[in-house]
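STRUCTURE REQUEST FORM
Protein name: UDP-N-acetylmuramoyl-tripeptide--D-alanyl-D-alanine ligase
Source organism: Psychroserpens ponticola
Requested output: structure tokens
Priority: standard
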Amino acid sequence: MTIEKLYHSFLKCSTISTDTRKIDSDCMFFALKGDNFNGNKFALEALNKGAQFAIIDEAKYATHDKCILVKNVLETLQSLATHHRKTLGTPIIALTGSNGKTTTKELINAVLSTTYKTSATKGNLNNHIGVPLTILKFTKDTEIGIVEMGANHQKEIEFLSNITLPDFGFITNFGKAHLEGFGSIEGVIKGKSELYDHLMSHHKVVFINKSDAKQIEQIGDYKKTILFGSNTIMASAQPFINLLFNKIEIKTHLTGAYNYNNIAVAIAIGLHFKVDDSSICKAIENYKPTNNRSQIIEKNSNKIILDAYNANPTSMIAALDNFGSLNESGKVAILGDMFELGEDAEFEHQSISDYSKTFNIEHIYLVGENFFKTKNIVKNVSTFKSFENLKNELINSPLKNKYLLIKGSRGMALERVLDYI
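Status: completed
Returned output:
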């Protein structure tokens, strides 16, 4: 079946589904495969639950006239998304980067949605499956689309850009993330810059902070570049960021100076799309982070910066810099392993361990197999090989009246600490 014919069927459906546990009536079910599952086996179940069509790539499962057999389900999903994107012609803003992608996407969406009908990536569905699913949720009523793109190896952003075909783009930063796949910080820069390469080759618009020399270097004298940051000034971050925008004070619910750039680009994009200053300010002031991203939580006698959604050496340093700058007493840091660092894991964990000791922090808990191997000769550092070991320590020696930073990679799930403080 051609993409044009499949698209005609897609337009008859209410939405897209890839999970039979979440079947909407009249949806189009895509029978994706993974290492441990084969969606083809669930095609009939999806149809029985209300799906209008089931897209499969194994003929033996074509047991219903609503099954549509294709060569490869995933590739078909991706091709359908690009066809949908071209048909709609909706302006799309794409963003990637080592840290802060999701927060930045949500801030941009908050600002633009005050004036436009927007549609944005849900959560962090930013990979080769999540990106096409995001695009296929755009409708003819979508005035601006916002697509987050993630990557852990080179050529992935190029691939996602070719699906998305963005009109505007922004890279939050270049950091030491996914070194196992990218190989080095130079590999990260090259991989993330594939977004700028795509935008420039298609004569589209690039947003860059005027003070980010490394990013400016990547685009050279490209004419369709919007440099931002001249009309915003960060006033303080104790712990929440307060900033001045065109001499208007904005009081945010975001902690950490590292979030300033994310706010500044949301303002810049809002201005580009002619959102009025008042709406921009209200949107940013009303935005509250969720999902373990730079959240401020109070529990019992403790105050907590919960930043446990993910971590890499760059974001860990930024979090420690911010935590160290806070004018608070009784500070305690609970840091979990950073994943996907490959052969750099030992060095990077030791570096973070050493760096954490340079701050006036009452006690530091290092959790995970990599942090457990670090060399620590100071009394205020404790290492734990597993979360269970840390849990027992917190139960036996409860933390009271402390100001905590909790940060680690997603696989560490350090938000579980909240159950024991």
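Reviewer notes: DSSP finds 16 helices and 19 strands in the chain. Residues 73-88 form the longest helix (16 residues).
Form closed.
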